[in-house]
Amino acid sequence: MSGVQLSVDEGVARIVFEDEAGRNAVTLDFCRAFARATRQAVTDPAVKVILLTAKGRFFSVGGDLADMLAHVDTVRDHVHEMTDLFHVGIRHLHHAPVPVVVALHGMAAGGGMSIALAGDLIIAGRSGKFNSGYTRSGLTPDGGLSWLLPRLVGPVQAFRIMALNQTIGSEEALRLGLVTKVVEDADLDQEVEAMVAMLRSMPVGVLGALKKLTREGGDRSFEAQLDIEGDMIARRAANPETLAILRSFLSGG
Q1: Distance (Å, rounded) from C-alpha 148 to C-alpha 125?
Q2: What pTM, to 2 d.p., does this model score?
């Protein structure tokens, strides 16, 4: 059982983790399905928003340690195969040409934390929490966590979170800038759907362009970013949909 399902409807690609019994653990089958689902989502021209949700009490507990031990004689190759596929999925989300929304409830640990933080907008229920979990097991982070977390909270806080495996609750996650908004668990679905509807209503391509600016801007100089901003806004201004919106705005429509 892969535990990952994809559906596309009205411009929204919904990727659902549904292995409730396995607490949505990251296994080899999960990684295969995750890579496949994200590839389909980012290459479908009809998709305007990607939404990640999970069934059950856990978003994802991360890697299945028992599965690793079951392959002890070939564990290095087994883990390499898993991470290669897992990282394909993470790359798809990071470079997606559309915004990625994550609905977080329950624990997102290890690889589950990496997946959640790959989102552009993360709406957390009160039960939402993070735990790196890697070093407790003698492992180091993957799924881009060692790159993402320092950029979100700074290197000092990132090292604390990953070294000490401290559980970060939803309110602390909001304070640290790990999530966009915290709501009551009972309101999570409604809040997420409202966010998705708002994003879906935006002009085609503009949020992908914004994502590219913000995701990649930190690796460039200020002057280089200005040049890219100038080129991008000029191209957006020449877009037929943008011109139609501007004309409507000026005419009071």
Answers
A1: 21
A2: 0.95
